[in-house]
Amino acid sequence: MAELTRTDFKKAKEICKAHGVKGFRKLALKRPLYIAGKQCIKIENAQKLLIDLHSAGYGIRDYQTCFELAQKGMLDCVTISL
Hints:
Elements: H1 6-18, E1 23-27, E2 33-37, H2 43-55, E3 59-60, H3 63-72, E4 77-81
Antiparallel strand pairs: 1-2, 2-4, 3-4
């Protein structure tokens, strides 16, 4: 899993902002990851967000689980990697 650069993260952040997501955070781990989240995101926005990030080349940790949670309206954050 490659590390996201600042430029990569800005593009991911723009995609998330287009879907109404306001919260971003860099996880300070051995391998830095970024999370994006918003409580009560609409189901259609959550699904579109996952699809847009995935098609832009970003990895989403536990993508299938996130998509299932999005379908139920229970998704509140995603972990983004490159």
